[in-house]
Amino acid sequence: MPTSRVGSLAERLPFRLSDTEAANEVFQQWLDGDEQRKRDLDLWTYCYIWKYFLVKKAQKSITEAAAIDDLIARAYQKVEQNRTEIQNPSRYASWVSVVCKNTFLNHARKDRVTESIHDEDGPELVAEPSGVEPDTLSQTLLQAIDRLPPYLQQTARLYFLERRTFPEIAEVVGKSVATVRTYKHKAIQRLRDDEALREHLHASSS
User: Fold this and answer.
1) Domain range holding 189?
2) Same structural domain for residues 176 and 197?
3) Which residues of 155-175 are buried (b: 16+ CB within 10 A; e: fewer)?
4) 122 φ, ψ to 5°?
5) List of residues 6+ apart from 142 with CB closer than 8 A
6) What is the pLDDT of residues 61-74, one digit of tens each?
């Protein structure tokens, strides 16, 4: 959806798309039983999510055109399924923003996992950002690391999840940098062969 179309949809709102306080008020009114406000609530949410990911695309944080539609659909579905559980209605707009951010981060982590497993010089995996709920990919990766031989597990966690440098890992595990590099190489080889992790990566990319 081009930016102009998002703007056209947003013009149907009784308030500006950037007016998050108004969006919070509409959400509260809908919770209070005013079903007529649901249209405005859904429209604001839809436009906000579209705008969020269009900005990410403009920033080149998302390079695949096909990924945009999928990310928007996933974020909107999460909002629809979970917004009645929000404890503080005055934080609805902020919560939608967090849903968008988490959806984007999950997408980015999937790419980092795929590249790190298949390319030893690829980006390193990072630990979960504060406030981000663990996704199934993170759980699958952690389980795969737990299936590694014990002597490789700590190095794998420090390298993939905590983004530690080789000297830092060497200090923690009490081995030389050369040994840590060897452990990392062996861990990657075994993760490539981990059936559950491979299946998850294949399913995520299909």
Assistant:
1) 124-205
2) yes
3) bbbbbbbeebebeebbeeeeb
4) -75, 180
5) 161
6) 776 766 888 889 98
